[in-house]
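Private note to self, pasted from the team thread so I don't lose it. Backbone tokens:
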């Protein structure tokens, strides 16, 4: 059975979707963009944006008692691959090197609210 996951510690959905869904021990987190949930405003610059996206993802994981160690798959969308190295270093700083998830990173022409980065994740309960 599907359980809709919602936390005030991550940005509210801006469309017809949930922050995340839990089904059979698997958490599917919708793509997170760099919106500060406290202010509802976008942060700017790839460093700040990447940190905010990771904090938003972490808040959703925490809501269901998980951490980044539970993440099995990540999908990263960048507006420019020129931001890859900076994003990659920040992304890695939130993860345990012994439990990196599978991942792909793709460049896209545009993202919601014209942000530079969006990340979605899939996590599994141990």
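Design output:
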């Amino acid at each position: 059975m599907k359980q809709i996951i919602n936390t005030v510690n991550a940005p509210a959905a801006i469309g017809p979707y949930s922050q995340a869904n839990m089904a059979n021990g698997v958490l599917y987190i919708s793509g997170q963009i760099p919106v500060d949930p406290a202010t509802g405003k976008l942060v700017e610059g790839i460093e700040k944006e990447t940190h905010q996206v990771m904090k938003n993802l972490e808040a959703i994981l925490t809501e269901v008692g998980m951490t980044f160690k539970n993440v099995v798959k990540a999908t990263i969308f960048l507006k420019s691959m020129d931001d890859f190295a900076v994003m990659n270093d920040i992304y890695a700083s939130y993860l345990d090197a012994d439990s990196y998830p599978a991942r792909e990173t793709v460049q896209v022409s545009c993202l919601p609210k014209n942000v530079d980065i969006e990340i979605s994740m899939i996590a599994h309960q141990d």
